[in-house]
Amino acid sequence: IDACFISPTWHITTSAMFAGSYIGVILLVMALEFLRSTAKDHDCHILRQFQHSLDISPPHLPPSSTNIKSCPEPSVKAVGGDGRIDAARATLHMQQFGEAYFVTLLAIYVNGHIIECIIIGVWMTVFTFN
Fold it and tell me: What is the distance of C-alpha 10 from the center of its chain?
């Protein structure tokens, strides 16, 4: 109670506001981790499309590389100049960067409850989605 985060409008004055902030930060971190996973899946999709367009299966990739989670990230230059792909990757990166920066700003307040929310949010994401 009586903590202020990011802006004067986020001033916790009641227990309900504290609970809402606690849950909100956990959900924010979960959204960030989900966005990271989505961006990686999108990169794997782009890589598969590129490999399929060349009709190749790189011999240096192990069989497990067909799994989305272990797929290496392609570079934009290797994929080509498709504007839609570049815009989608840029948008995912921008959203991921913005959310990560916001979570970092919250962690900088060195409020134990907020740091606890960040840790719980990461744990819940891994527990829920992996």
Answer: 24
- DSSP for 93-117 reads HHHHHHHHHHHHHHHHT--HHHHHH
- Closest residue by Cα to residue 2 from 12, 80, 48: 12
Residue in the structure block whose two tokens are 């960067």 = 97
Q: How far apart are CA 118 and CA 95, in angstroms?
A: 18
Amino acid at 78: A
The residue written with tokens 């960030």 in the block is 32
Cβ atoms of 45 and 73 closer than 8 Å: no
Q: Which residue has the tokens 């996973």?
A: 37
pLDDT tens-digit series, residues 68-126: 445 654 444 444 555 566 788 889 899 999 999 999 999 988 888 999 999 999 999 98
